[in-house]
Design brief:
Order of helices and strands: HHHEEEEEEEEHH
Largest sheet: 8 strands, antiparallel
Shape: globular
Helix content: 25-40%
Radius of gyration: 19 Å
Protein backbone atom coordinates (compact mmCIF):
# COMPACT_ATOMS: atom_id res chain seq x y z
CA UNK A 1 0.00 0.00 0.00
CA UNK A 2 1.30 3.44 -0.93
CA UNK A 3 0.29 6.61 0.82
CA UNK A 4 0.55 9.94 -0.98
CA UNK A 5 1.08 13.02 1.17
CA UNK A 6 1.49 16.68 0.39
CA UNK A 7 4.73 18.58 0.79
CA UNK A 8 3.27 20.37 3.82
CA UNK A 9 2.35 17.04 5.42
CA UNK A 10 5.85 15.73 4.72
CA UNK A 11 7.41 18.78 6.39
CA UNK A 12 5.21 18.23 9.44
CA UNK A 13 6.22 14.58 9.65
CA UNK A 14 9.92 15.32 9.36
CA UNK A 15 9.89 18.40 11.57
CA UNK A 16 12.52 18.09 14.26
CA UNK A 17 11.12 19.02 17.66
CA UNK A 18 13.91 18.30 20.16
CA UNK A 19 11.63 17.96 23.18
CA UNK A 20 9.47 15.36 21.43
CA UNK A 21 12.54 13.56 20.07
CA UNK A 22 13.98 13.37 23.58
CA UNK A 23 10.77 11.87 24.95
CA UNK A 24 10.54 9.35 22.10
CA UNK A 25 14.16 8.33 22.78
CA UNK A 26 13.28 7.83 26.44
CA UNK A 27 10.22 5.73 25.55
CA UNK A 28 12.33 3.50 23.31
CA UNK A 29 14.91 3.13 26.09
CA UNK A 30 12.85 2.71 29.25
CA UNK A 31 9.21 2.56 28.15
CA UNK A 32 6.21 4.87 28.30
CA UNK A 33 5.43 4.04 31.95
CA UNK A 34 8.73 5.60 33.01
CA UNK A 35 7.84 9.05 31.65
CA UNK A 36 7.17 11.75 34.19
CA UNK A 37 3.94 13.79 34.21
CA UNK A 38 5.50 16.75 32.36
CA UNK A 39 6.67 14.49 29.55
CA UNK A 40 3.27 12.81 29.27
CA UNK A 41 1.57 16.22 29.22
CA UNK A 42 3.86 17.45 26.44
CA UNK A 43 3.10 14.35 24.35
CA UNK A 44 -0.62 14.90 24.93
CA UNK A 45 -0.31 18.54 23.80
CA UNK A 46 1.68 17.48 20.74
CA UNK A 47 -0.90 14.86 19.87
CA UNK A 48 -3.67 17.44 20.13
CA UNK A 49 -1.68 19.84 17.94
CA UNK A 50 -1.29 17.11 15.31
CA UNK A 51 -5.09 16.89 15.12
CA UNK A 52 -5.39 20.62 14.27
CA UNK A 53 -4.88 22.33 10.91
CA UNK A 54 -1.23 22.94 11.93
CA UNK A 55 -1.11 26.45 10.48
CA UNK A 56 1.07 27.52 13.38
CA UNK A 57 4.17 25.63 14.49
CA UNK A 58 4.02 23.49 17.60
CA UNK A 59 5.29 25.50 20.54
CA UNK A 60 5.90 23.27 23.54
CA UNK A 61 5.17 24.84 26.89
CA UNK A 62 8.45 23.77 28.33
CA UNK A 63 8.13 23.27 32.05
CA UNK A 64 11.14 21.03 32.34
CA UNK A 65 14.39 20.20 30.61
CA UNK A 66 13.55 16.72 29.35
CA UNK A 67 17.16 15.71 29.24
CA UNK A 68 17.34 16.08 33.04
CA UNK A 69 16.56 12.39 33.44
CA UNK A 70 19.93 11.86 31.83
CA UNK A 71 22.50 12.15 34.59
CA UNK A 72 25.22 13.22 32.21
CA UNK A 73 26.72 12.56 28.83
CA UNK A 74 29.66 10.26 29.21
CA UNK A 75 32.60 11.11 27.03
CA UNK A 76 33.29 8.44 24.46
CA UNK A 77 36.42 6.45 25.13
CA UNK A 78 37.15 5.95 21.45
CA UNK A 79 38.34 7.59 18.33
CA UNK A 80 34.99 7.77 16.55
CA UNK A 81 36.51 7.14 13.13
CA UNK A 82 37.86 3.71 14.11
CA UNK A 83 36.45 0.36 15.05
CA UNK A 84 36.19 0.07 18.83
CA UNK A 85 35.86 -3.68 19.15
CA UNK A 86 36.39 -6.54 16.75
CA UNK A 87 36.05 -10.30 17.05
CA UNK A 88 36.34 -13.30 14.79
CA UNK A 89 33.45 -15.63 15.53
CA UNK A 90 33.66 -19.43 15.61
CA UNK A 91 32.39 -19.68 12.00
CA UNK A 92 35.29 -17.46 10.84
CA UNK A 93 33.16 -14.38 10.22
CA UNK A 94 34.26 -11.05 11.63
CA UNK A 95 32.11 -8.72 13.68
CA UNK A 96 32.99 -5.09 14.37
CA UNK A 97 31.46 -2.65 16.82
CA UNK A 98 31.83 1.11 16.41
CA UNK A 99 30.13 4.25 17.64
CA UNK A 100 30.08 7.97 17.01
CA UNK A 101 27.50 8.78 19.70
CA UNK A 102 28.14 9.56 23.34
CA UNK A 103 26.61 7.07 25.79
CA UNK A 104 23.61 8.22 27.77
CA UNK A 105 23.70 7.68 31.49
CA UNK A 106 20.29 7.34 33.12
CA UNK A 107 19.55 6.86 36.81
CA UNK A 108 19.60 3.05 36.67
CA UNK A 109 21.59 2.24 33.54
CA UNK A 110 23.83 3.51 30.76
CA UNK A 111 22.87 3.10 27.12
CA UNK A 112 25.60 2.72 24.49
CA UNK A 113 24.54 3.23 20.88
CA UNK A 114 26.58 1.22 18.38
CA UNK A 115 26.71 0.13 14.79
CA UNK A 116 27.71 -3.44 14.10
CA UNK A 117 29.25 -4.63 10.88
CA UNK A 118 28.71 -8.33 10.29
CA UNK A 119 28.13 -10.35 7.15
CA UNK A 120 28.79 -7.37 4.86
CA UNK A 121 25.86 -5.56 6.45
CA UNK A 122 25.54 -2.77 8.98
CA UNK A 123 23.22 -3.09 11.95
CA UNK A 124 22.33 -0.35 14.43
CA UNK A 125 21.30 -0.71 18.03
CA UNK A 126 22.23 -0.38 21.64
CA UNK A 127 23.77 -2.07 24.64
CA UNK A 128 22.27 -1.20 28.04
CA UNK A 129 24.40 -1.75 31.12
CA UNK A 130 23.07 -1.41 34.66
CA UNK A 131 24.90 0.55 37.35
CA UNK A 132 26.66 -2.63 38.49
CA UNK A 133 28.23 -3.13 35.08
CA UNK A 134 25.96 -6.02 34.11
CA UNK A 135 24.31 -6.40 30.73
CA UNK A 136 20.72 -5.21 31.00
CA UNK A 137 19.57 -5.35 27.37
CA UNK A 138 20.96 -5.57 23.87
CA UNK A 139 19.25 -5.06 20.53
CA UNK A 140 20.57 -4.58 17.01
CA UNK A 141 18.60 -4.47 13.81
CA UNK A 142 18.23 -3.00 10.36
CA UNK A 143 15.54 -2.33 7.79
CA UNK A 144 15.39 -4.60 4.76
CA UNK A 145 14.83 -3.30 1.24
CA UNK A 146 11.12 -3.96 1.87
CA UNK A 147 11.23 -1.86 5.07
CA UNK A 148 10.88 -4.96 7.25
CA UNK A 149 12.79 -4.95 10.54
CA UNK A 150 15.55 -7.56 10.58
CA UNK A 151 16.95 -8.58 13.94
CA UNK A 152 20.66 -9.34 14.26
CA UNK A 153 19.73 -12.01 16.80
CA UNK A 154 17.56 -13.83 14.26
CA UNK A 155 20.05 -13.41 11.42
CA UNK A 156 22.99 -14.72 13.46
CA UNK A 157 21.14 -17.75 14.78
CA UNK A 158 23.34 -19.79 17.13
CA UNK A 159 26.24 -17.35 16.68
CA UNK A 160 24.23 -14.74 18.59
CA UNK A 161 24.97 -16.46 21.93
CA UNK A 162 28.68 -16.12 21.17
CA UNK A 163 28.15 -12.46 20.20
CA UNK A 164 26.21 -11.74 23.40
CA UNK A 165 28.87 -13.40 25.60
CA UNK A 166 31.56 -11.37 23.82
CA UNK A 167 29.59 -8.18 24.55
CA UNK A 168 29.04 -9.16 28.18
CA UNK A 169 32.51 -10.42 29.08
CA UNK A 170 34.88 -8.55 26.76
CA UNK A 171 33.19 -5.37 25.52
CA UNK A 172 31.29 -4.16 28.61
CA UNK A 173 34.33 -4.31 30.94
CA UNK A 174 36.10 -1.95 28.48
CA UNK A 175 33.26 0.61 28.35
Amino acid sequence: MKIIISERQYKLLTENIPEIDSIIDKISSVGFNNLNNDEKELLKNYSEWLKTDKKTPFEPKKTKDFSSDLMSDVSPSINTSNVEFEKTLSDGSSIQLYSSVKPRQYKDFTEYMYDVEWGDQEWSGYISVDNYGDLKDIDFGMLSDDDDYLSLKEEMGPLYDEFEKWIEFEVIPEL
